[in-house]
Amino acid sequence: NSSIYGSSSSGSICSHGGSGSINTAVTSASASSTQKSDPHRSVLLQCYVELKSSVNVEDHVLDYLYSNFVISKSLRDRIRSDCTTAESKAGMLLDELPSCGASAFREFVDALIASKTSVHQKLAKKLMDMVKNDQQSP
C-alpha cells in the first residue's frame, strides 16, 4: 500500500510514471528540503486532512484524471472498488497522486475546478495560492 509520505509498492498505477524524488520517504530531517524541492507535494501534505474530508473524487475528479492520463484505469477502478467511503477514496487518491508525474498536481487542481462544485473551487484556489506563496518564500 502506498502513502503520500512514502513509496508505492503497488506497481504502475499512474499513466505518466513517477519521479524518484517524490517517492522518497519524508522524514523530519528532510521535510524542509522536500518543501523547497517539491512545493506541490508539500502543499498536498499541508492540506491532506482537509482535502481527504472535503474532496468527493467521484464527482468528476477520478474520470478527469483518468481521461487526462494522470492515473491509470487500474488505479481509478481500485479506488472505486476498494474504498467504501468518499473520505477513503479521496485518501487513496491523495496517497497515490505524488507518484503520478510532474503534472499530476496541476491536473488535480484542474479536476477540482472542472467539477464545478463550490467546495472544490475553493480548495483549488487555496492549493494554487499556497503553491504561489511557497514559491515566493526565500
Can you tell me about this structure?
α1 (31-37) packs across α2 (39-46), α3 crosses α6 (86-96) and α4 crosses α7. Residues 1-12 and 16-36 have low confidence and may be disordered. The protein has 8 helices and no strands. The protein is mainly alpha-helical and 138 residues long.
Number of helices: 8
- Helix residue percentage: 55-70%
Question: What class would the helix/strand composition place it in?
Answer: mainly alpha
**Spans of 5+ residues with little confidence (pLDDT < 50)?**
1-12, 16-36
Dominant shape: globular
Rg result: 14 Å
Instruction: Outline the biggest β-sheet.
Output: none
Mean pLDDT: 79
Order of helices and strands: HHHHHHHH
The strand count comes to 0
Task: Name the assembly state.
Answer: single chain
The separation of the N and C termini measures 35 Å
Relevant terms:
single chain, 138 residues, mainly alpha, 8 helices, disordered N terminus
Offer a quick outline of the entry.
With 138 residues, the chain is mainly alpha-helical. The protein contains 8 helices and no strands.
In terms of topology, how is this protein built?
Layout: H1 31-37, H2 39-46, H3 48-54, H4 57-67, H5 73-82, H6 86-96, H7 104-114, H8 118-136
